[in-house]
Amino acid sequence: MAANIIDGKAFAAKVREQVKGHVDRLKEEHNITPGLAVVLVGEDPASQVYVRSKGKQTVEVGMNSYEHKMDADTSEADLLAVVEKLNNDPTVHGILVQLPLPKHLDEDLIINSISPAKDVDGFHISNVGLLGTGQKSMVPCTPLGCLMMLRDYHGSLSGMDAVVIGRSNIVGKPMAQLLLGDSCTVTIAHSRTKDLPDVVRRADIVVAAVGRPEMVPGDWIKEGATVIDVGINRIERDGKNKLVGDVDFASCAERAGAITPVPGGVGPMTIACLLANTVTACCRANNLAEPEGLTA
Ligand code: NAD
């Protein structure tokens, strides 16, 4: 069986189009332009690439993009002051502090200083709690993107067996909460899981978020299962640099019913969902109806 390839690049373009439609309406009917502020501390090259890409896509959908670049030795007090200013700025509807932060800064403290209503990354402890209790929250972008693709492919996920490999706060745990919210029977597997192949073989939906290149082989996959590969791993093969996921694409695609590729699967959905969260935050801040299909 050859799996259907879930095209995250095309799906993300569709989400951005939807976001742009809502932004246009907010501007025309309410004279409001959603604004996203991104704070970058230090010069981590990967973070610089992400921030540039976020800024570019924010402007492309018609939103205002504000970038705050701060030196690597910025003090906690100075960073907290910038976040506080953005919290109080009515033109800013979403705030994202790019992670990882330099070691001397307390990430939890900084993230929890962001106003939960503007926390478009969904990492604030209030949003984590709201998601965990099935209440309206800001949902972390990468798991939200995975959920959107799964809903689009399957329609209802109710009653499906889902296995999430990885228990990080950024991907694994919120992913599991979202699947539970859609009435899946959810297992979270991790580095201490006893018989991972056996656990994965039971799954109708496998979400791999580990960070280990191609660790899931095809023979772990139940015939016809849907495989969502969150992993982004840079490897060298045949003398060339290559990007691969956490699943072995070729062998998993032989058994899966559907699979996301790397690159071009989950990756592009993350920024699209950041834009979606920003427009949602803007609507909520202005007591306007939320855009449909862009939240969990
Ligand atoms: P993390 O390092 O915080 O968490 C990895 C998880 O994998 C841990 O919970 C750990 O228990 C589990 N794990 C480690 N070894 C394992 C093993 N042998 N068997 C089973 N589980 C194991 O990573 P993260 O931030 O959740 O990211 C995971 C991957 O997803 C990385 O490759 C990262 O680059 C990628 N990622 C992609 C996007 C995107 O936009 N597509 C966003 C975030 C993360």
Condensed summary:
The protein has ten helices and eleven strands. It has 296 residues and is an alpha/beta fold. It has a six-stranded parallel sheet, sandwiched between helices. It has a three-stranded parallel sheet with strand order 3-2-4, with helices on both faces. A two-stranded antiparallel sheet has the order 9-10.
Summarize this structure as a short list of keywords or feature phrases:
single chain, alpha/beta, binds nicotinamide-adenine-dinucleotide
Tell me what the structure shows.
This protein is an alpha/beta fold and 296 residues long. The protein is built from 10 helices and 11 strands. The chain has helices spanning 8-30, 45-60, 76-87, 107-111, 125-132, 141-154, 172-181, 196-201, 249-255, 266-285; strands at residues 4-5, 35-41, 64-70, 94-97, 161-165, 185-189, 205-208, 226-229, 233-237, 240-244, 258-259. The protein has a 6-stranded parallel β-sheet, sandwiched between helices. The protein is globular and about 50 Å long. It starts with a strand and ends in an 11-residue tail after the last helix. The model has no long low-confidence stretch (mean pLDDT 97). Nicotinamide-adenine-dinucleotide binds next to helix 10.
